[in-house]
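Step 1: inspect the first sequence and its tokens.
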Amino acid sequence: MPHAPSRRPTILDVARVAGVSKSLVSLALRGGPGVSESARARITAAADQLGYRSNALARGLVQGRTMLLGVLLTDLANPYHTDVVAGVEEAAAEAGFGVLLAHGRRDAERLATQLGTLVELNVDGVVAISSWVDGDALRAAARRTPVVVVGRPEHPPEGVDTVANDDAAGAGQAVAHLLDLGHREIVFVTTSRRPAAQGRRRGYETAVRGAGLTPRVLAVEHADQLHAHAAPLVASGATALLANNDLTAVALLDAAHDLGVPVPGRLSVVGYDNSTVAALVRPRLTSVDQPRPELGRTAVRLLLERAVDGRTADRHEVLRPRLVPRTSTGPARP
């Protein structure tokens, strides 16, 4: 017959084993002042012996906080999102907060539902790593807890902070790099109509026109459609492709490989995000680096400014990207 699980040790058990009061145990485990080193050592040893772990939820109820931040992201399969989450987790841990993760699965309705669930769990703030979340859902959530969007929502609701990179500037850096390599037939390839992709397209078009060239854009709904367009692109004389993100760029590398088109010998490819995949593919992908962990850390700082410091004015921070050249780009060849 299976044994029933033993009950979880409490702060009273720690006080009994250490031979001190419950209040002294609470003070010591919080790292508070007024506890002698010998008493603190006895209390710590007793807690370790019993396997006691403080109840963060109960402590949060006393403090009026749960000490948890919610993180909502569009796509767990996209390394850009998971890189931002890593920055959120680091900054949250440094501030003494835990993190709850919710996945929207690239579905706007599910994202709104997941956002509501995080708010119902009384998190102390939400970082939404997505520009897909419905504005009304963001507005409703922000009435109950601080909300920061990492990305570029089309119409940021009042009461919601945002942090993003300068998409147009990043695309401009990519075009400048390709122009320096002698490319004159540069095509912008996008699989998204979201504001970030549109900003990158505008940056591309401005930079290309500034060089006296004509912009060329290929827009498709899904990356798996790129194979059908790769051959016509090459046949049209394109020598360089700037993708709206790294996953689109990797799909272009795959299509070029299947066609037998050498990269960068015949075709140069640039991605955007500098996600972890950029350094793993062959050839290694030249990409515009969004400071992904820093985006996450900045989002946490903005949350805590509202939740802890009481800031009420909206903030919209923009971080500067930088190009990371690798082996997927090379000199243009006739």
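Step 2: inspect the second sequence and its tokens, then contrast the two.
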Amino acid sequence: MKILQRYFLSQILRSVLFVLFAFLGLFAFFDLIGELSSVGRGGYQLQHVLIYILLGFPGYIYELMPFAVLIGTIYALAMFASNSEYTIMRVSSLSTLDACWMLAKVGLVFLVFTFLVGEVITPVSARVATEFRNNLIGRAVGDGFRTGMWSKDTIRKDGIDGPVIGSRFMNVKKMQPDGTLEQIRLYEFNDNLELTKTVSAKNARYLGNHEWQLNEVVESHLTAANTKNKKFPDSAPSLNTKKLDSLIMVSDITPDILSVISVDANKMSAYELAIYNQHLVENKQDATSYQMAFWKKIIYPFSVFVMMALALPFAYLHFRSGGVSLKIFSGIMIGVAFILINNLFSHVGLLNTWPPFLTAVIPSALFFLSAVIALWWVERH
């Protein structure tokens, strides 16, 4: 069994790597075509495009891994069947359960690799790629939003751990790659949702420990109206404005949280998604889409087991039942169907407010059930 295990691993690994590199080359070509229009903007040249594309490879590897595992495993098993190798293995006492166990061990290797790429490499490479491109083009985070970036924050009485006494809405026009904010506007409300203060600043620098230094500040305090006197102007609220060179603001918002707004959730780690989910929940904002992205991030690496289970029935189909090319085509269609249904459930679950965990796990569960039924059918026939 150990010899067979190593043989399975070597053949499947070779096929998966071939498929993965083929798709990476295809996606790199599409990215190159898409980036050619940006060549010449600022200091962005062709060699920088190639670096930017290479930095995007970990993200593509993470997204394509289950698909590559499916196609590569189908090809390896189809070759076993066409050369009658799998028939000899079965005659030599290899049961279906043994084959499943060997594929599960191979799948564990791909699962660990996919998890490491998705949790460790992709978040870093995606952030570096974005900063690298923005620095050369001269584009800051937030340029793609008409009114800049918006975020909700809580106001606490005594520092970051004090009781909540209000809420704050932050509007940032741009965020530079080094985390510096430009053209900031703050709107602060009390517990009764009454506007109490507005602040505008030219720029802001993060000092650490949840503290921001606002520079060139204009601060306006709004005093509630005198409800006892109904005559104007005594009944009108008063506004006191003052200018400050700098102001220290304590906030739950950090540069990492702001950068999440412009980053694709699929390229964030589960840890980053969990932190941002907590921030949204604490500020009483809808976190359903990010909760769904979190659970998809947790479950997605396990889909390699589902893909291998779907590939195993192809080993029972002999060459006369269909050529290797037909089996590969069938595998591609299965992989495309899995991606489409997975994305469809994400949107449908979001629209119908389904539990994020169930929305993320149902597509994999359905395809795994299909694999079990297909394996039962081919073994019976």
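Step 3: confirm your contrast with the notes below.
The chain has a mean pLDDT of 83. The longest helix spans residues 96-137.
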